[in-house]
Amino acid sequence: MAYEEIIFLVGAFLVNTLASGLVYSLATTSLTTMYGGLGIPNIALGQFFIIGAYLLYFFYVQLHLNLIISALATMVMLIAFYFLIEKVVFRRFYSAPSGERIVFFVLLTIGMSQILGNIILITFEANTYRIVTPWYYETINVLSFPSPVSYILGITLLSVTLCVLFWFLRYTKYGKAIRALVQDREMTGLMGVNITRMSTLTFLLSSGVASFAGMIYGLMYSFDPSASGMIFSMTFVMMLVGGRGSVLGSMIMGFFFGGLQAALTMFFFPSASLYVFFAVMLIILLAKPEGLFKR
Amino acid sequence: MKIREFDKSKLPILLFSVFVFALPLILSNTALWLRVFTYVTIFCILSSAMNLMIGFAGQFSLGVGAIAGLAAYTSANLMMRYGFSFWVAFPVAALTATALGVGLGFPGLRLRGFYFAMATLIMQNVIVQIFLDWTSFTKGDIGLTGVPFPTIFGVEVRGIYYAYLCLAALGITLYVVYKLLNSSLGMAMRAIREDDVLTESLGINVARTKMIVYATSSFMIGAAGSLLGHISMVLTPRMFEIGLSFQILVQTIVGGGGTIVGPLVGTSLLTVLPYAVRESYAIQDIINGILMIIVAISFKGGIYGQIKGSLQRSKKEITENKTIDEKTYER
Lengths: 295, 331
Hints:
The structure holds two protein chains of two kinds. By secondary structure, chain A is an all-alpha fold. Chain A is built from eleven helices and two strands, in the order H-H-H-H-E-E-H-H-H-H-H-H-H. In chain A, strands 1-2 form a two-stranded antiparallel ribbon. Chain B is mainly alpha-helical. Chain B is globular. The longest helix of chain B has 29 residues, at 302-330. In chain B, 76% of the residues lie in helices and 2% in strands. Classes of the chains: A mainly alpha, B mainly alpha. Chain A binds chain B through residues 41, 89, 92, 99, 102, 104, 106-108, 110-115, 117-119, 121-122, 229, 233, 236-237, 240, 271, 274-275, 278, 281-282, 285-286, 289, and chain B through 60, 107, 110-111, 113-115, 117-119, 121-123, 125-126, 129, 132-133, 241-243, 246, 249-250, 253, 280, 282-283, 285-286, 288-293, 295-297.
């Protein structure tokens, strides 16, 4: 292989790994905080994720709004929606005994995923969409690999978000309270933290992060309703392998699996990565059920 | 020989089964409703089998769609490509499904509750992906068309006869479930649902019991999947996606898991409903989702559990009042 070809492949691998790895990291962080903090195994994560992309498409392409305004409108609408469902549905079950709670949450989130997924299917139908921005066809060379501008923009936005999220969870008062919630719910309440408010905040933060990642995903790739199922199974694998409740573990796993997927897609066929993910998950689950990064 | 006295409390059940048995005859004029009836019986088998796993043994397996799909494809391929008769293909398909079900259940020996559910759910996604990629077996997204109906002595079993075939399969399934639950194995299953560590300490072989449950219910699911394959016009991998598992789960839980009758109630209700309102599959799934949330919020034990609970409560109140009266009388 010539020297230029290797450089080209490395560039392609780097861009693809960063793009999908960042998306996975954010989605998995969302899943982990919700499962660790509130005990909700969010089966509707795929729908929470992809609805961001669809709403952005709706505002930007169909209503011809400015890109920034449509992104803001998407986030505001979704946060309001999440606030509503948290208040009406999820809040009732936080204090249920843990064995019963998980069954309720599985039922609720399956119901949510059915409703949201099929509303998307009815309004947008099973077509493939892409959000064509003015700079959609332009490229920037990364190590001689002509990377689309949308990838570079997406990578920048996602890494800034990831850093802010990490800072928020690690150093602010609210972040500390959320991490305390992940560790021990009752004890956190005894320490004088308003659990109800913190739970709402956790719910909004984690579902908002998922939708934001989905929005950026929509800017970078073309999407269809089946993307939600793919994202859901991959992020669940990452959460289980990384260890539930471990934010750092899920971030690392996002990059690891993103890189694995980029490599497998480049050298084999795209669905090969699903089989490999599955094999990795099964081995980890059987050998070390609590995941690699214990919290 | 002693003639057993007729138990009056069994009369409603007897009348109801006669009604169900006569139903295909009543419906035989309309092809659509006969087909709906057949679907209801097949889905009743599926939800009874899932109930055996979830409701009674507490094993939250979500791989039903994949197991049913494998059976449907196996029996269709055996008949269409290799020219086997239905009566060979059907048991072979069910046995293949059993093998897959036991394989899917293997992690269940180590994983509990939620983790097991997730493992089976992801395996379900992977198996559907295999169906999509393995085009020589499944024809991929184009779909497998023209799956033949079974024949007996050269006569094609279709329409009303196929409905009776499915009804017979449902009858056998319910009989097996009933017998299984009243055996010592059924007790062991329910003990595992409550606490499997404690059950193990009582000297019950938990791994063996779990494996028997997986095998039995996968066999039933496989049989139902094979029957579903022969009545469907076209078989596509998307039919057996996670949506199918969720649909059966909703039917089981809305009706009331952990009872024999509950899943039948839920399945009949939720299968007939979309045909009654004549809407698309998407609307049907939305209705399913809303029902699921309502059931989770408002009543435990599903619709059947709710009715049964209220009946028992009223009975209990009557007896309680009586005892109080008697006590005051004694004084």
